[in-house]
Design a protein that fits this description.
It is a single chain. This protein is of the alpha/beta class and 324 residues long. It has two domains: 181 residues, no CATH class; 100 residues, Glutaredoxin (3-Layer(aba) Sandwich), CATH 3.40.30. The chain is 37% helix and 26% strand. It is built from 13 helices and 13 strands. The strands form two sheets. A seven-stranded mixed sheet has the order 3-4-2-1-5-6-7, sandwiched between helices. Strand 8, helix 11 and strand 9 form a beta-alpha-beta unit. Helix 11 crosses helix 13. 35% of the residues are buried.
Length: 324
């Protein structure tokens, strides 16, 4: 693959950052916070880049866009973008694009030299969990990448419609990736933080906590199938901790976003989300509580992952508890 020397692209970036910061009337630019590698094919490149673009203005980063299946010959180029933060400092992206018509652009030997050793490195992987080791990224990632990030909801869309076997293979591939990667994070799981907090509040207090042992069934209805499965697995893992996993029926249903808990005697508790930042907790005695949360924006999620590139151990517990 005919990729220019890293020193040439580095010099180009220095010039572009200066020009971009000058255009934004920023006297100073914040130092890079991390390196983000966006690995995708030409089909998912636009959506993958759009997700990372939500970081713009939040954290400065070097972004390596490595793409397979592109039209034309292999090529590489740079660009720079800056926005101003509240202190009028430039929050800049250093963009390095590497494309190839085959899968060569994904080879860590191609994009590895552009990592900044002193900064955490996050790999945003858009090929599904099973392909990470197949492309040779596994051993390299274990040594040089701090966190592998995926969007499980989008990955899952590519394997739907094939019955339970592909779903089981998908789950097993994630578990294998978790074992091989230094750390693994799923944006679909991170987006569910408000829901998990709301469920915890639903059974808050000594009286409500006692009702946990009276749960007969739970119905889950969310915006996509993978998120529903994650919530199912999370509920099973939590119920298992109190010896209730085998006693409670959990079903995935169509309807408004939320969860409904049916208790002994027909009482119902529910969690609903009329908006992404507001949860309504409803009880059989007609009591309704409204809770406010911060928006689960992908940009904020990514910024938090850059600040603390670590995996959530509850995610693996939830994945392992999904029944398929």
């Amino acid at each position: 693959m005919n990729i220019p020397k890293s020193s040439i692209l580095e010099r180009e970036l220095v010039s572009r950052i200066r020009d971009s910061a000058r255009e934004g009337e920023s006297a100073t630019a914040r130092a890079m916070a991390a390196t983000v590698i966006v690995a995708s094919d030409s089909i998912r490149a636009a959506s993958a880049d759009a997700t990372i673009d939500r970081l713009m203005g939040r954290r400065p980063a070097r972004v390596l866009h490595v793409r397979s299946g592109s039209e034309g010959p292999s090529r590489a180029w740079t660009s720079a973008r800056c926005a101003l933060d509240r202190a009028s400092r430039g929050v800049c992206f250093e963009d390095i694009f590497i494309e190839s018509p085959d899968e060569e652009a994904l080879d860590p030997r191609i994009w590895g030299p552009f990592l900044i050793r002193e900064l955490p490195a996050i790999l945003f992987w858009n090929f599904g969990p099973g392909a990470l080791t197949e492309c040779g990224c596994g051993p390299f990632c274990a040594e040089r990448v701090d966190l592998v990030v995926a969007d499980g909801s989008l990955d899952f869309n590519f394997i739907q419609g094939g019955g339970d076997a592909p779903v089981r293979n998908f789950i097993d591939a994630i578990l294998q990736t978790i074992a091989d990667a230094p750390a693994y994070s799923d944006l679909a799981w991170e987006r569910l933080e408000n829901l998990r907090l709301a469920v915890a509040r639903l059974f808050d207090g000594s009286e409500r906590r006692g009702d946990l042992a009276k749960i007969v069934s739970i119905s889950v209805s969310l915006r996509d199938s993978w998120s529903e499965m994650l919530v199912e697995g999370w509920l099973r893992s939590r119920l298992s901790a109190i010896g209730m996993s085998e006693k409670v029926e959990i079903s995935l249903v169509q309807g408004d976003a939320g969860l409904v808990f049916v208790l002994e005697g027909g009482r119902r508790y529910s969690v609903g989300f009329p908006t992404g930042s507001v949860a309504l907790l409803s009880y059989s005695d007609t009591e309704v509580l409204e809770l406010g949360f911060r928006e689960t924006d992908d940009g904020l999620i990514l910024a938090n992952l850059l600040d603390d590139p670590a995996a959530d151990p509850m995610y693996r517990q939830a994945i392992s508890a999904i029944r398929r």
